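Exercise: predict the fold of this chain.
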Amino acid sequence: MSFTETPFDRRKQRTEQVARAVLLAMTAAMVIPLVVIVGYLVIRAWPVLSIDFLLQNPVSRMRAGGLWAPLVGTLYLVVISLAVATPIGVMAAIYLNEYAREGWFTRIVNLAVVNLAGVPSIVHALFGLGAFVIFAGMGRSILAASLTLAIMTLPVIIASTKEALAAVPIAFREACWNVGASRWQTIRHVVLPNAVSGILTGVILQVSRAAGETAPIMFTGAVFYKALEDNSLLAYGLLDQCMALSMHLFTLSTQVPDVPPALPYGTAVVLLGLVLATNLLAIGFRLYLRSRKRW
């Protein structure tokens, strides 16, 4: 038995083809510019890209040398800020999603989280300057800059963690409660393990923001130039000032004359590579955790 194609079927096929072409064009409109930008940066940076470029300090008033000091400073800022923001953000999201009752206080807290996510980075910088540098007496230091970045990254971590917790089926919680588990036991042993991949999504998003921000660290801990004597990962102290890749790129582009053309592009490529490498590592871990899900 054969079916004859009708005009209605042909219209559906044409509509399907048009929709597919439009969606493909929209995808290409996002991907192609990214590939072009990254390719352009790599081509312009190619003359300076090498292992020595990563392992040497800037020299000759930052007109030569490498990126070791800014690279290590950026690692300090990102790691410390996420180490502070992640547990606080996750615990706040657990309270808001699992414990807090609907009411005016919960609505105010949720509104505050949403509004905090939209605050410009320069405002966070002024807050960090007043709260950590001056009031807390930390001075311009890695610790003050990291805490400022932590405050800035908290809203997204809280929001993404809430969504990940809410995505865990309520039946999982009810099954635990029916066998006598407490609310905290249910959260710890059932809800969090099944939500951890979603929680990592928020953390991944904040790695690039923490690494790429300039204004918050410019006011609170970044310095124009500071070489590391022994090229050690432990050369900075928490109360020391540090160089950072984003600040270094800004400085090379606007403050240092007669910089070799490839040097700022090389700095941009290293910063981009650091963010991509960190994201890929976190995404790989997230995919591993998702593969262990039973639902």
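Check your answer against the key: Residues 7-45 form the longest helix (39 residues).
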